[in-house]
Request: fold
Amino acid sequence: MKYSNTKIFKTGLIPIRFVLTYGTKAYARYVKEELGEEDVLNSAGCTSSFIDHETGIQTIIIAVVKRRRFVSEKHFKSIVIHEMSHATTYAMQRMNMVDDEFRSYTMQWLYKKVMPYLNKKTKGENNE
Reply:
């Protein structure tokens, strides 16, 4: 199913998919429709993890509020990086990995997937 302001990234190598939701409505809609749960994004960002016990696939949701709610682009991007770090930790725990190089490559992969999508979404947004 396709959701607006939501992007799904599949790794292909490990049974984990990363979901980025951009905005409070996108997060609430994805969680309600995919997980059957009611949840509200009431902070700048959050990261949560769920495992489908039938398929064994872990879904890691990275959620951030819209860019215009931040005082600057730097602040917005720092929150995105912060949440990507949490997502990487969830992936590492799932894979029983403690290797710093795994963390670095996962963060790099996430950054290369997430930031172009967010840059496109936030183009032209301001703080008004």
Q: What stands out?
A: The radius of gyration is 14 Å. The chain is about 45% helix and 20% strand. Residues 49 and 60 are 4 Å apart (CA to CA).
